[in-house]
Amino acid sequence: MVMVNGEQETGVVGETILDFLKKREAPIENIVVEQNGKIIHRADFDTTKISENDKLELISFVGGG
Amino acid sequence: MQEPEIQGSSYNDVYQGMKERNVKDSTDKLAAAHVTIAGAGGLGSNIAIALTRIGVGHLTLIDFDSVELSNLNRQQFKLSQVGMPKVVALKQNLQEFNPFIEIKTHQVKITHDNVKELFEDADIICEAFDNPAAKAMLLDAASEFYPDKPIVMGTGMAGVHSSNTITTKHPRKNLYIAGDGVTMGAEGLMAPRVMIAAGHEANMITRLILGNTEI
């Protein structure tokens, strides 16, 4: 089971972080990804895969300041 | 030798007088702290003023942009400063509020490649960008180069929605994010609500300087 922002997500095991983010609505460049407590650097999005029992936190930013 | 004076009072009297209403035992810790503020717009200018007033001793201001008319509905610049680099105008204003602060400025665009150098001397990193991709880039780079430095950020302060939806969150060690998390700049950004988010960031930074890591 993979948890994304505290909710169960199915069918994502084996995907790269990049492929996983591409399916979501928010622009990829506005998101920071934490996998099992560790921030995955942007340069590693296309080589880091999602594994069974992963906990992902997506920290999204909106514009304005 | 005569003691230097500021507007007819001794340097020391002015310094002490300006700190009189600060919270007990805060002044020396604040004076020793170094905060580097990424962005000198609606968030950054308001955060910088708050930190300057309470006497945070060392500030670094970073912004590539110049003051525009459209900034004046929320950013702490004057009509007379339109066209000036934001970091130059802001430093000028801060020095009028409190002359006892060491202020460094960099008129440069922050990218992944210069984060290591620009934030080296910061005790606390303050993110105050407008652009969401820049916010994400800075968190990514800061977690790479300076995982042990606290970073205080802002996201979501647009429109005229309730003040009370703006909060400070602490999603992971050393990361603090103020804002409502959802309202986007395209809706319009105005001083009152931007200042609430800036106040959240400035107060969290103050708490961190004084040793409190809880939100």
Q: What features would you describe in this structure?
A:
Chain A has one helix at 17-22, and strands spanning 2-4, 7-9, 31-35, 38-40, 55-60. With 65 residues, chain A is mostly beta strands. Chain A starts with a strand and ends in a 5-residue tail after the last strand. Chain B has 215 residues and is α/β, with parallel strands linked by helices. Helices cover 35% and strands 18% of the residues of chain B. Chain B has helices at 11-18, 27-32, 42-54, 86-97, 115-118, 132-145, 191-209; strands at 5-6, 9-10, 34-38, 58-62, 102-106, 124-127, 151-154, 167-172, 175-179. In chain B, a hairpin with a 2-residue loop joins strand 1 and strand 2 (9-10). The mean pLDDT of chain B is 97. At the A-B interface, strand 3 and strand 5 of A face helix 3, helix 6 and strand 9 of B. Chain A: It comes from Lentilactobacillus parabuchneri DSM 5707 = NBRC 107865. Chain A: InterPro entries: Beta-grasp_dom_sf, Mopterin_synth/thiamin_S_b, Thi_S, ThiS/MoaD-like.
Ordered list of secondary-structure elements with their pairings:
The complex is a heterodimer of chains A (65) and B (215).
Chain A: E1 2-4, E2 7-9, H1 17-22, E3 31-35, E4 38-40, E5 55-60
Parallel strand pairs in A: 1-5
Antiparallel strand pairs in A: 1-2, 3-4, 3-5
Chain B: E1 5-6, E2 9-10, H1 11-18, H2 27-32, E3 34-38, H3 42-54, E4 58-62, H4 86-97, E5 102-106, H5 115-118, E6 124-127, H6 132-145, E7 151-154, E8 167-172, E9 175-179, H7 191-209
Helix pairs in contact in B: 3-4, 3-7
